[in-house]
Each structure stands twice: as C-alpha cells, then as structure tokens.
Amino acid sequence: MSAPKVAEWVRKQIRLKKGQAVPSHVNFFYCFGGISLFLILTQLISGVFMLFFYTPEPTQALQSIAHLSNEVPLGWLFRNMHRWISALLLATVFSHMVIVFYLKAYQSPRQFTWLTGVSQLLMVFLMLVTGVILPWDWRSYWSFAIWMDYIGTWTVGGESIKAIILDTFTLDAAYYIHILLIPLVLATLLFFHFKMIRRFGISEPL
After folding, report:
1. Taking the complete model, does pTM exceed 0.90, yes or no?
2. How far apart (Å, rounded) are the C-alpha atoms in residues 98 and 96?
3. Which of 10, 18, 29, 174 has the highest local Cβ count within 10 Å?
4. Is residue 122 part of a domain?
5. What is the CATH number of the domain that holds 194?
C-alpha cells in the first residue's frame, strides 16, 4: 500500500471516530472533570512504579519507602508526585462537584451522572485515607487512630463498625484495598460516568 493511500486511510479513521463537538458555552470551570481524570492517570502511573518497591509489612513499610525515596533513581519524584497529587486530586474532584451542583447539572436526565460523580469523590477520599496509612509511621498510626475514634462517634452503628475494622485491620489488607479494590470501583464508576456524559452531553448554562 502506497503512502498516500495509508494517509487517506488514517484520515478516514480519524473522521469516523471523531467525537462530539465541544459546546460553545464550555469554559475553564467545565474542565475540572478532565483535570481530575488526568490526575487519576498520573496517580496510576506513579502508583504502579511504587508497587515494585513498597513492602506492606509493619516493620518494613517505612524502610521500603525510604529506600524508594533515597536510593531508587527518580524514586523521590514518583513518591512525591503520588503523595501531593492525591491531595490535589481530591480538591479538583470536589471543585468539579461544587460547580456541577451550582450549575444544577445534577437534574434530570443527569441524575445517574451526578450519583457516579459523588461516588467517585468518595472513592478518591478513601484512596487518600488508605494511602496515608500505608507508610505506617507515626503520622499513619495517629491518622488511623483518629479515624477510628471518629467512626466510633457515629450514632448508627459507629461502635460496631469501629470494632469490625479494628478486629480485621492489617497493613496488608489496607494495601490491597488501596491498589485493587478502590481502583476497580473507581474505574467502574468512571466508565459509567463517561458513558452518561456521552449519552446526555454537557449541561447548558443556567
């Protein structure tokens, strides 16, 4: 096949797969969802890199992170990216939800889009909480203790939930919840979220 025919085939594929046009009313405040997705992908890349060096054992967790940060080439960069972007991600997802609420984009027919978005905010928050625990240093220990005390104050089932978590908690379990369970739930929510956006489009301004 000649080069012109290859170029023509590529152009046809691009035309066939071209997405919907961006509405004219879309501005910077509509971009927090896309920014959040970019940060999630960044977290995925940095997290996969860290998987090769982290050891989910109470006596070795902090040492493995110190090894990553001080001895692995660019390890300090990936570790700090993962740590600071997690807080930035929570901020962008929360901002996205506030803007959607202000624009009343949660109304029919976008209720399911809104629900999956709120669920993603919860997953990002749980990802941040479990990530703080994984180094298992003094900050991790007291963060875990504070959260357990807070859960214990819940009026309905607080003490029971706290007792279950304390009885079943291991650093290994927190690790697999952080790298497997929450990401799988988050990926599923993202799939349905973007499916709904593609179906119903971007909301119009008030």
Report:
1. no
2. 6
3. 174
4. yes
5. 1.20.810.10
